């Protein structure tokens, strides 16, 4: 980057921040990215956290948007060194009764797995194959995205609306006949904080389900940090710069325009044209901006901002692959542990009541099955999380080990002998995840609740849903803006496009 003040400062080097920086740099802006931590990536990082030689993803680990997102595809991350790996099965959903519905990029393999629900799956997969690019453009563009929506066509819009207006349970029971198939879409929705019985909750799980059948739950060779490295390469090759260990303490405004940031050490850095914040919305509006710069209505909205569920994550070093009872799970990138619709509903009720789930729903990742760089020869990593309350009575110190044991017992139900394979484990309670990445408030992975009342024009607050803020020159480009969670880069790209539009 040339000496002097940059055109744009991006606060936060998570995937959205780096995507915003890449688009601005491609447009000819001089860009400086500031990251509070010692390394970039936010929740998209990889470290040896159990034993030497075992590489674990700290946050995000599987990337259905990685090869399909209209924000990432133009950046050609494979051309920047990123290598994607795929398992034969993308998402397996076993239960103790021996059933297992599985989703793969091979439509016929999925149809065989679903048995009598195979024809229903062929219809869904066929519709998705015909509409995927238009659908992703519509869902990931700046709202209201009328042009992309209209290009879907009236019949496709009607079909999408039927899904969007359904609960996960309603859509599943209307679409599938078997309990095994019915637990897939509601189970995938619990990647966020959307339960099976939530109104208008089906769309989250539906999108993850169909993306598993197209982009798949892809694994970056070498770890999630490889995505961060590829994005950073795209920023730096156009002259952008990254500065780590630079925690922003305040955003400075003059005459109604954001013009600079002040670091924790007191240093002030000016931006000639724009500041893009890859930050939690409450952090931006309540901590980094002086209160007189933020409308009282926005301050009130941020004080009552609804975060998503907390997350309790574990990493294991294993002396062999997880011994799943069902063969599909032994070949799956991701295994979901949720026995039935009623099991998922009971789990959701317990978390919302502030209790630790008795029978935790789990998202379980098996990266080392397809990426041998993750573990020493003959050994494996395992990655898993459950959704939990953000805080519990008495704090996490007294409950960490107990709930970790409960998670291992849950896996043991589906993979007898699992505990005997464990060499080491690492536990991440919600407060640990927030300490790792300040945007994960209370262990919330999603940038706020995915409830329909927090989407579209209400994310994060009306009328500031199009990445602009009450201050000219300041933009929100994090997952707290539309379309929310997922490593798709769309929040950052759309914020960058807003900058370019305003700057002519």
Mean pLDDT: 96
β-strand amount: 15-25%
* Rg (CA only): 22 Å
Strand order in the largest sheet: 7-6-15-16-17-14-18
Please outline the major beta sheet: 7 strands, mixed
Can you give the helix content as a percent range?
25-40%
Q: Which blocks of ≥5 consecutive residues have pLDDT under 50?
A: none
Number of DSSP-assigned strands: 19
- Total helix count? 17
Query: Into how many domains do the coordinates divide?
Result: 2
Tell me the distance between the termini: 22 Å
Textual characterization of the structure:
With 504 residues, this protein is of the alpha/beta class. The chain folds into two domains: 8-50 and 224-305 and 450-502, FAD/NAD(P)-binding domain, CATH 3.50.50; 84-219 and 309-436. Helix content is 34%, strand content 18%. It contains 17 helices and 19 strands. The chain has helices at residues 15-26, 107-114, 118-140, 146-152, 154-164, 168-175, 179-182, 184-189, 202-212, 225-236, 281-288, 296-303, 327-330, 341-352, 400-414, 430-436, 490-502, and strands at 8-11, 31-35, 46-47, 56-57, 84-85, 89-94, 100-103, 219-220, 241-244, 248-254, 257-263, 268-270, 274-277, 310-318, 332-337, 362-365, 380-388, 422-428, 474-476. A seven-stranded mixed β-sheet has the order 7-6-15-16-17-14-18. A hairpin with a 5-residue loop joins strand 6 and strand 7 (100-103). Helix 1 (15-26) packs parallel to helix 10. It is globular, with a radius of gyration of 22 Å. The model has no long low-confidence stretch (mean pLDDT 96).
Nutshell version of this structure?
The protein has helices spanning 15-26, 107-114, 118-140, 146-152, 154-164, 168-175, 179-182, 184-189, 202-212, 225-236, 281-288, 296-303, 327-330, 341-352, 400-414, 430-436, 490-502; strands spanning 8-11, 31-35, 46-47, 56-57, 84-85, 89-94, 100-103, 219-220, 241-244, 248-254, 257-263, 268-270, 274-277, 310-318, 332-337, 362-365, 380-388, 422-428, 474-476. The chain is α/β, with parallel strands linked by helices and 504 residues long. The chain has two domains: 8-50 and 224-305 and 450-502, FAD/NAD(P)-binding domain (3-Layer(bba) Sandwich); 84-219 and 309-436.
